[in-house]
Amino acid sequence: MLKDYNRILVTGGAGFLGGHLVDALISLDKEVVIFDNLSAEPHRDSLLGAKLAKGDVRIPRQVIQATKGVDLIFHLAANANGTISVDDPRFDFETNAVGTFNVLDAALHARVKKLVYVSSASVYGRPQYFPIDEKHPTKPFIPYGASKLAGEIYCNSFFKTYNLPAVIARPFCVYGPGENPKLALVEVTRYLRWHLNKKPIRIVGDIDRKTRDFVHVNDIIEGLLLIVDKAPAGEVFNVGSGKEVSMRELTKIISSVTGRSAVLNVIPEIKEDTYRLVSDISKLKALGYAPKTSLVEGVKQLVKELGESPEMPRGATVFKKGQKGEIQGSGGL
Known about the structure:
The chain is an alpha/beta fold. The protein has a domain at 2-173 and 216-239: Rossmann fold (3-Layer(aba) Sandwich), CATH 3.40.50.720. The protein contains ten helices and 13 strands. Residues 329-333 have low confidence and may be disordered.
């Protein structure tokens, strides 16, 4: 139970998802330590009520220092951008795979009571059946998915070999307030930023056949806290909405919420991620998980947060070396 943990370490706690998690833990009167290299613009609120241990998960001694006296670890520190993993796979591997090993090793020596590893639905690769349950084959097709899966494999090996109580969470397409437009590639907020600036929405892939499971960040946080409370060590859990939405449906929601028809710029020739992606969340639901924020409500919240002319999205969605993606003038990789 969460009440059994007094000092909690959140690696990557200054980032988008980590920042929301830290906020939730502080609201529960927990002592929180953030371990983050602050390479991206931090989620500011989370820095106010927590202790900051600045460091890099690639450096073992820094991770060991941060874990001293910790009861529980949420491991979120990672490169979460697939395009960066294509451009610089060594950085992605060292941050995600080696970094996770360093956190597990430090957790073992610190004798933590539980570790929650936040992986990704990217480990599944191209889905073979729908909805995707936790037994679905894991065959990632970009380095990001491979590095996150490597972290999962190490979590399982440390649990089996050393009895380190690790649990794995696989979030699907997370969106919500506070996303970094320089890094975030999930379509909901990217599309909104273009639309609110009265620019065409740039859509990679088939607008109807490409579907996603968009899950609000608040629901992800609920799922992670539930995993701490009720999930046994050694298990894997999907954390999604369980709802399948096509890119066309998403643009219709954006048009409806804003009261202005979206202008679309479809780039169908990039086909690598044109597939159905929807989670089977039965396993987490059995523990009491119940997503609360609908996509319509989530878009309404984001419209209020972003305002009329938010910062434009940066970076292109790229799956192969040489692709230019959807950002005009980006030059690709």
